[in-house]
C-alpha cells in the first residue's frame, strides 16, 4: 500500500501513543488499527444480528405499540412525559 499521509497533529498523537507503549510508531499504529478494525467488525456483526432478531420478532408478531414502549422507557429512566405537538393551523394562503 505504501505511505499513508498523516496530518502533523495525528503524527504527534501517534508518536505520543507509541512512546507511552514503548513501541515505534509503525508498530503502535498497526496495533491500534488492528484493535479498532476488530472492534468495528464485532460491532457490525452485532448490529446485523440485532436487526435480524428484530425482523424475526416482527414476523413472529412479538411486538407492542410504540406508545406503550415509550411510556415504559420514560418510567424506567424517570424521564418526563413528552408534550404533545400543536397541530399546524389549517389556514390557507391566497395568492
Task: Report on the architecture of this protein.
- With 95 residues, this protein is mainly alpha-helical.
- The mean pLDDT is 91.
- It has a domain at 12-76.
- It is built from three helices and no strands.
- The protein has helices spanning 8-21, 25-59, 66-76.
- Helix 1 packs across helix 2.
Keyword list:
single chain, 95 residues, mainly alpha, 0% strand
Radius of gyration equals 25 Å
Hey, roughly how much beta strand do the residues contain? Answer: under 5%
> N-to-C terminal Cα separation, in Å?
62 Å
* Secondary-structure element order, N to C: HHH
**Average pLDDT over all residues:** 91
Q: Any idea what the shape is?
A: elongated
Major β-sheet profile: none
- The total count of strands amounts to 0
Helical stretch count? 3
Taking pLDDT < 50 over at least 5 consecutive residues as the criterion, the unreliable ranges are: none
Structural class: mainly alpha
Which percent bin holds the helix content? 55-70%
Summarize the structure.
The chain is an all-alpha fold and 95 residues long. The protein is built from 3 helices and no strands. Helix 1 crosses helix 2 (25-59).
Write the layout of secondary structure elements.
Elements (H helix, E strand, L loop, with lengths): L7 H14 L3 H35 L6 H11 L19
